[in-house]
């Protein structure tokens, strides 16, 4: 176990966050601030690795990771593994095919040593794309402080969904995500497939989110990337993507959050998938995340208010932003860009859907409720395939004759 030490430097860094958060409201970051914010995001690496996709991966000492800039995590003792894994009961409906050995692109050029974690370096261009420093790495693209703030914009404004949800008392979720590389019309729009583990009403919602996304604004390219997200106050002042703000504690030296997932699926060709499991450690209360067979890290229970005990809602599916740039619906695709009715080989799916119950056991949900308000643009179709457990197809092309 490593004890995270709060150095004077950390203090300076926390102070700088406060400065940035309460500083200028100008839309364009001044270069001094960009520089400061970059220093904040990019920790001094032990080693750096150049990835073929253009990313630089910094191997940062595990105790110097961004999480420990969070005031409530100052004295946090890093855990190396959870106390419990969820119990998996053999389910005839679920076929656990041996997962393909899945590597991230940067592995071809090296690995991070033990005792470090890989962090995708934030480049100056990344920061300059952001309309404000405060909003960079945030799910909303407009800076907001509170619901009383005139700048407040509903996080779901312009967002369109095709999802399936289950309600109850949950301690985790698991799913296999079919990976695609949907077209995104403009850099400020995204297309993603993810799971949401949430508790609380709209304005206070606490979330744990994991999935894949194409989001040029955030990454500077159209690659399909692994992401995580969290908020503990309805996306108002807390939370961010990946390790973009203090919160998630990474324990693994192989998986880069925000890293490119490659290859992706082809229409009527090879299908690629990733397995994600998130569960609450019943003893310590932390929410752990596993990617394929690899334990990545955890969201400490202390980050949350309403997710401290349990989740009330587990949701899976797709989300896009529709900015209607030319007055028409966006052509940004969801999933594979095909409607779910097209089925296997063409439409994108999420399968092997399970939730973790109070006895720490993974179970296939009995009821899933679908949400597809823009179904002529993006849709979802539930299905139970004998070999795939609870699953669905989702997605769509966006703009089309029925979705002008
Ligand atoms: C961290 O530990 C120091 C020294 O024991 C203590 O003064 C401080 O209040 C602790 N901070 C938190 C956030 O628990
Ligand atoms: C991303 O995709 C869009 C739409 O297909 C294209 O216009 C743009 O040039 C691509 N951007 C990059 C960085 O490849
Ligand atoms: C689940 O969490 C909510 C919100 O924190 C709490 O009010 C409720 O008592 C919890 N339920 C159980 C069964 O722990
Ligand atoms: C999508 O659905 C939402 C919620 O019903 C609605 O407000 C929005 O106008 C719809 N957008 C389009 C393009 O149909
Ligand atoms: C698992 O593998 C078998 C044999 O390769 C294949 O027929 C089946 O479709 C696969 N099932 C899933 C759920 O991927």
UniProtKB/TrEMBL annotation:
Cited InterPro entries: Glutamic_endopeptidase, Neprosin, Neprosin_propep
Keywords, ordered alphabetically: Signal
Signal peptide interval: 1-23
Keyword Ligase found: no
Top-rank taxon, per record: Eukaryota
All residue ranges annotated as the Neprosin PEP catalytic domain in the record: 146-404
Name of the protein in its database record: Neprosin PEP catalytic domain-containing protein
């Amino acid at each position: 176990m490593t004890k995270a030490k709060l150095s004077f430097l950390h203090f300076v860094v926390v102070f700088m966050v406060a400065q940035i958060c309460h500083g200028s409201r100008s839309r364009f970051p001044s270069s001094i601030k960009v520089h400061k914010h970059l220093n904040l995001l990019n920790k001094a690496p032990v080693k750096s690795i150049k990835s073929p996709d253009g990313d630089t991966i910094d191997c940062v000492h595990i105790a110097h990771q961004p999480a420990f800039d969070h005031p409530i995590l100052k004295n946090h003792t890093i855990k190396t593994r959870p106390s419990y894994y969820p119990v998996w009961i053999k389910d005839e409906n679920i076929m656990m095919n041996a997962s393909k050995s899945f590597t991230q692109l940067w592995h071809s050029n090296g690995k991070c040593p033990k005792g470090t974690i890989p962090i995708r370096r934030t480049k100056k261009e990344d920061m300059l794309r952001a309309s404000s420093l405060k909003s960079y790495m945030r799910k909303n693209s407009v800076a907001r402080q509170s619901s009383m703030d005139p700048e407040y914009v509903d996080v779901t404004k312009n967002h369109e969904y095709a999802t399936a949800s289950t309600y109850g008392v949950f301690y985790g979720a698991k799913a296999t995500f079919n990976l695609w590389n949907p077209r995104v019309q403009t850099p400020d729009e995204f297309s993603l497939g993810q799971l949401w583990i949430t508790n609380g009403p709209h304005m206070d919602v606490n979330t744990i989110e994991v999935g894949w996304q194409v989001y040029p604004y955030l990454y500077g390219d159209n690659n399909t990337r692994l992401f995580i997200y969290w908020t503990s106050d309805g996306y108002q002042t807390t939370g961010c993507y990946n390790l973009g703000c203090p919160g998630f504690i990474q324990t693994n030296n192989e998986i880069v959050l925000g890293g490119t997932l490659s290859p992706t699926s082809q229409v009527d060709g090879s299908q690629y998938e990733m397995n994600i499991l998130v569960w609450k450690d019943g003893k310590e209360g932390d929410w752990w995340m596993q990617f394929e067979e690899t334990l990545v890290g955890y969201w400490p229970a202390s980050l949350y208010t309403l997710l401290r005990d349990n989740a009330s809602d587990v949701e899976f599916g797709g989300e896009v932003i529709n900015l209607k740039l030319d007055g028409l619906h966006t052509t940004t695709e969801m999933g594979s860009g095909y409607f779910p009715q097209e089925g296997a080989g063409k439409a994108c799916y999420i399968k092997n859907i399970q939730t973790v119950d109070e006895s720490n056991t993974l179970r296939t949900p009995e009821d899933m409720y679908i949400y597809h308000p823009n179904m002529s643009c993006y849709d979802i179709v539930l299905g139970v395939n004998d070999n795939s457990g609870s699953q669905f197809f989702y997605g769509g092309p966006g703009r089309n004759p029925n979705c002008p």
